[in-house]
Specification:
Keywords: DNA-binding, Transcription, Transcription regulation. InterPro entries: Homeodomain-like_sf (IPR009057), HTH_AraC (IPR018060), PchR_regulatory_protein (IPR053142), Tscrpt_reg_AraC-type_HTH (IPR020449). It holds the Pfam family HTH_18. Residues 216-314 form the HTH araC/xylS-type domain. One of its GO terms (molecular function) is sequence-specific DNA binding. It is a single chain. 36% of the residues lie in helices and 24% in strands. By secondary structure, it is α+β, with helices and mostly antiparallel strands. It folds into 2 domains: 7-200, Jelly Rolls (Sandwich), CATH 2.60.120.10; 209-315, Homeodomain-like (Arc Repressor Mutant, subunit A, Orthogonal Bundle). The strands form 2 sheets. Strands 1-2-3-4-11-6-9-12 form an 8-stranded antiparallel β-sheet. A 5-stranded antiparallel β-sheet has the order 5-10-7-8-13. A hairpin with a 2-residue loop joins strand 3 and strand 4 (45-53). The chain is globular. The relative contact order is 0.10.
């Protein structure tokens, strides 16, 4: 019989929001939205959908779980802090597999949101019946990914073409299909995971936690002063980091150069103001550091494909 996990399995701040026949909905106390949909598909094997819209850092509740975990993110980017104070990031569309030796200490979302899924195999809980079911298809569920050297490091790759439709179908079926559907899809997923080889991966880039904190600190200063012209060089004078290193790590975290990222941040904020306030376009431009209205309009059009005045008409 498949059993639901207790709250301690989900970590600090978790509460049960809904317990259904097919899944358990878990919500986290955070500064936004943090929701899991946990489908317990076999004894010891869970498929968990994650929907986060917050900037909180979440701690791994049970650090010594003997697990194999397959992660995929449909939207956003996730930051993992390992127990050696190293940090790395998983981007949209990447596939990651890890095991006991590399369970993260904490995770957070640099963009403030993340939508993904995680398949967790708790090797100490998988029973003989479950092992036998998968063995019919020549899948050793307790040693899935054995060829990927998971005892040494995370396996990270761009999601292979043959797996894309599986993840698309899983996301589309959340809250619609029942447990049996997801069991079939999981079997298909494991079949393809079994075909992966160490040569398919690319090296994850790790940074020291202290370096990540510098990047976030400077980004926050830039965001808090959108109406001012503050140079990165000026902010870096107080930090033990070169501009070249700053730009490289910034792009790894946020996927853009600092200039491009802040520009997009400003334009997204402008879009909110245009839609939700009656401020003039000149006022909005000024609040975001643009004294030249034409430059602001051009920057907005580059991001949204239309001028600010046309965007406001379309959204009002």
């Amino acid at each position: 019989m498949i059993q639901h996990h207790g709250l301690e399995w989900y970590g600090e701040g978790a509460t049960f929001a809904e317990v259904c026949n097919d899944y358990t909905k878990v919500e986290y106390k955070c500064n936004g939205i943090g929701v899991l949909y946990d489908y317990a598909l076999f004894l010891g094997i869970d498929l968990i959908f994650m929907d986060f819209n917050c900037t909180d850092t979440f701690r791994e509740p049970i650090p010594n779980k003997n697990i194999i975990e397959i992660r995929h993110y449909q939207k956003g980017r996730v930051e993992f802090e390992l127990r050696n104070n190293k940090v790395f990031h998983i981007k949209e569309g990447e596939l990651c597999i890890n095991a006991l030796a590399n369970i993260p200490a904490a995770y957070s979302f640099p963009f403030g949101y993340g939508v993904g899924l995680s398949c967790v195999i708790d090797k100490d809980s998988v029973d003989a019946e479950t092992q036998q079911i998968f063995s019919y298809y020549n899948i050793d569920v307790l040693n899935l990914g054995r060829e990927l050297e998971l005892e040494k490091k995370w396996f990270l790759c761009r999601t292979p073409q043959r797996l894309l439709h599986i993840f698309d179908e899983l996301y589309a079926a959340k809250g619609i299909e029942g447990r049996n559907y997801f069991r079939i899809k999981l079997l298909e997923l494991f079949y393809h995971i079994k075909q992966l080889r160490i040569e398919d991966q690319y090296e994850a880039t790790y940074y020291a936690k202290e370096q990540i904190e510098i990047i976030k600190r400077i980004r926050q200063q830039l965001i808090e002063n959108l109406d001012k012209k503050i140079s990165i060089e000026e902010l870096l004078r107080k930090e033990p980091m070169s501009k070249v290193t700053f730009q490289a790590i910034f792009k790894q975290i946020y996927g853009d150069t600092p200039y491009a990222h802040i520009k997009k941040y400003k334009m997204n904020l402008a879009a909110v103001y245009l839609q939700e306030t009656d401020q003039s376009i000149t006022q909005i431009a000024g609040e975001l550091g643009y004294s030249n209205i034409s430059k602001f309009a051009r920057a907005f059009q580059e991001v949204f494909g239309m001028l600010p005045k046309d965007y406001r008409k379309a959204k009002k």
